[in-house]
């Protein structure tokens, strides 16, 4: 069941300043099945898009189609088949995981105790929380809490799962465990992962978009986007104070401190000069190249065929 987003816009009015923020500006995307990464920095508009997809917020304009369902006008239909893990997932610290999941299952309509027990057990096992099911959620680590959030989001076997910035704040081991769990889910539903962490997308997603300031800058398959930069990314280790001059003469797409010096990545279709070494591009290069407006991968927004 693909998800089609057409010309979505959303502007917030700031009551205090009286100004406005355009969080989404004419966003159109096609999201096929499997894992989809929505990548962008803080403030890009990711959560706004996720909340609109999760039917928690109204756009000012635009249309969303999930298979045959008109997402904006048939919210109840979407909710039947939607799982949503928000950025801030609050839990009741004194509740035990098993009890709270059971409670959410009741709310989701599992009224028969026997089948509910089965569903709760299956989800606790799937999210690797079975052994700690009797523990209180207040004692859970960040990663355990996120996995519990996934268990809740998966109640009712959703065809569309939306996870908003799930790996922020997880330690590396928890992050890997969490991403592995998501990748299993992507096998039989649409999973949209919003993140500002490039590796989340490169390790996991078969399709992706890059968003900044409410606009889609790139819609691509990660591997394909990376291969388009082949032969064009060069690196050089420079002194910190040489950076300003280099940015005047070269297309510097990213910089990183390395043992007190600065490692720059430059985009160029020919040798950028002495001391530069060609590197294999990765998704981080795609991301930074796109963010600075260098990417020559064309993005042409699709037109809505319906009025
Ligand atoms: P992201 O999830 O990518 O960090 P958001 O969708 O949260 O981006 O925010 C996009 C922009 O909209 C930001 O400039 C943010 O400050 C603004 N914004 C988000 N929610 C609100 C709100 N409820 N009221 C006013 N401005 C908001």
Topology summary:
Blueprint: E1 3-13, E2 20-31, E3 34-39, H1 46-53, E4 61-66, E5 69-70, H2 75-80, E6 82-85, H3 97-107, H4 113-126, H5 142-153, E7 160-164, H6 172-185, E8 190-195, H7 198-204, E9 207-212, E10 215-220, H8 222-227, E11 233-238, H9 243-249, E12 252-258, E13 261-267, E14 277-278, H10 283-291
Parallel strand pairs: 3-8, 3-9, 6-7, 7-8
Antiparallel strand pairs: 1-2, 1-4, 4-5, 9-10, 11-13, 11-14, 12-13
Helix pairs in contact: 3-4, 5-6
Bound molecules: adenosine-5'-diphosphate.
Adenosine-5'-diphosphate (ADP) binds next to strand 2 and helix 1.
Strand order of the largest sheet: 6-7-8-3-9-10
The CATH architecture assignment of the largest domain turns out to be: 3-Layer(aba) Sandwich
The ordered H/E elements are EEEHEEHEHHHEHEHEEHEHEEEH
What are the distinct ligands in this entry? adenosine-5'-diphosphate
Q: Average pLDDT across residues?
A: 90
Could you tell me the radius of gyration in angstroms? 22 Å
Show unreliable segments. Answer: none
The largest sheet, given as strand count, sense and whether it forms a barrel, is: 6 strands, mixed
Highest-level CATH class of the largest domain: Alpha Beta
Shape: globular
Structural class: alpha/beta
């Amino acid at each position: 069941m693909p998800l089609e987003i057409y010309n979505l816009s959303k502007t917030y009015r700031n009551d205090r300043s009286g100004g406005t923020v355009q969080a989404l500006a004419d966003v159109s995307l096609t999201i096929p099945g499997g894992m989809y990464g929505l990548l962008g920095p803080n403030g890009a508009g990711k959560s706004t898009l996720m909340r609109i997809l999760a039917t928690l917020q109204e756009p000012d304009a635009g249309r969303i189609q999930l298979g045959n369902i008109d997402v904006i006008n048939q919210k109840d239909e979407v909710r039947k088949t939607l799982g949503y893990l928000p950025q801030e997932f609050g839990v009741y610290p004194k509740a035990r995981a098993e009890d709270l999941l059971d409670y959410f299952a009741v709310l989701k309509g599992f009224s028969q105790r026997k089948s509910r027990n089965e569903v709760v057990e299956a989800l606790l096992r799937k999210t690797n929380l079975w052994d700690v099911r009797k523990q209180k959620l207040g004692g859970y680590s960040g990663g355990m809490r996120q996995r519990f959030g996934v268990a809740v989001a998966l109640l009712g076997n959703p065809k569309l799962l939306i996870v908003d910035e799930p790996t922020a704040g997880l330690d590396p081991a928890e992050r890997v465990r969490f991403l592995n769990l998501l990748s299993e889910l992507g096998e039989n539903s649409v999973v949209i992962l919003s993140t500002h962490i490039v590796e989340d997308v490169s390790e996991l997603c078969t399709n992706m978009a890059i968003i900044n300031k409410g606009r889609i800058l790139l819609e691509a398959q990660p591997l394909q986007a990376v291969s388009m930069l082949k032969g064009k990314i060069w690196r050089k280790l420079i002194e910190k104070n040489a950076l300003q001059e280099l940015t005047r003469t070269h297309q510097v797409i990213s910089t990183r401190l390395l043992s007190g010096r600065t490692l720059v990545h430059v985009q160029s279709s020919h040798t950028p000069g002495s001391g530069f070494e060609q590197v294999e591009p990765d998704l981080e290069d795609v991301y930074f190249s796109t963010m600075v407006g260098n990417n020559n991968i064309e993005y042409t927004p699709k037109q809505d065929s319906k009025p």
